Amino acid sequence: MTTDHVIENISVNKSFGGWNKQYSHQSTTLNCTMRFAIYLPPQASKSNKVPVLYWLSGLTCTDENFMHKAAAQRVAAALGMAIVAPDTSPRGEGVADDEGYDLGMGAGFYVNATQAPWNRHYHMYDYVVNELPRLIEAAFPVSNKRAISGHSMGGHGALTIAMLNPGRYRSVSAFSPICNPMTAPWGKKAFTAYLGKDQAAWQAHDASELMRQSTQFTPARVDQGGADDFLKEQLKPETLEAAAKESNYPLDLRIHEGYDHSYFFISSFIEEHLRFHASHLS
Ligand SMILES: N[C@@H](CCC(=O)N[C@@H](CS)C(=O)NCC(=O)O)C(=O)O
């Protein structure tokens, strides 16, 4: 490990024979101290590097929501899969913020901000794609067999990051993703602030636009609750489905009647997502 990869342990909890841990580190990409969580299954050891799923959370979340509420550890332990959950934005004094829950801290949207004041710290795209996996693969017994998943804003992050980096992730999945942020209130607000008014810059981070233009396919699964309050105005899975049809992208999209936007939905289907990723990681 080089000095670029100095990490400080914050918590350790044994879980299903493996370990749930939190660390902080100084991020050179985000220019602030960041926290992440990692679940290491019992199979992970110096002589046995395990594949790793990167989980991107939604608005208002930290590295903790998924690890506390998704109930993923039992199946991750059985499958021998590590899970890494970063925070959802840069943090700390001096980091630009907004009064709204959907902009600033807790709402990094997994893009590289080009607009002031956000461009000093808000580089979540580079952090997730480059700095974090470099650090994780240097510091823990995990391999470079990667998958990516996320929820809502994090579902948007997972889909766009996978499509912008073909070959980097073996599979991608999302719960209740923001499928067409260019036309959704959450996305329009964040993209205007972080990327500016020119919508050409937004297209590169819109899952539906990317899927419509895709010629290289990463296996993709999306699950959406039919009783999600954000479904019609913010999430728009029908737009992603239409885009997949246009490019013949093999998207497995499922709508589940009665489920809402919460972690009660995620925990109900997380096992299916982990098994989907395991089938592509092995
Ligand atoms: N209306 C909600 C929107 C935020 C929200 O629903 N966040 C989702 C992701 S988009 C979440 O995971 N919240 C944290 C949790 O359920 O643990 C609020 O004001 O907090």
From TrEMBL:
| Reactions this protein catalyses | S-formylglutathione + H2O = formate + glutathione + H(+)
Q: Which GO terms describe its cellular component?
A: cytosol
Q: Which SUPFAM superfamilies match?
A: alpha/beta-Hydrolases
What GO biological process terms are annotated to this protein in UniProt?
Answer: formaldehyde catabolic process
EC number(s) from the headed UniProt entry: 3.1.2.12
Q: Which UniProt keywords apply?
A: Hydrolase, Serine esterase
| One GO MF term attached to the UniProt entry | S-formylglutathione hydrolase activity
Q: Name the enzyme group at the top EC level.
A: hydrolase
Q: Where is the active site?
A: 152 (charge relay system), 228 (charge relay system), 261 (charge relay system)
Tell me its family. Answer: Belongs to the esterase D family.
> What does the function comment of this entry state?
Serine hydrolase involved in the detoxification of formaldehyde.
Which protein are we looking at? S-formylglutathione hydrolase
Task: State the organism's lineage.
Answer: Bacteria, Pseudomonadati, Pseudomonadota, Gammaproteobacteria, Alteromonadales
- Encoding gene per record: fghA
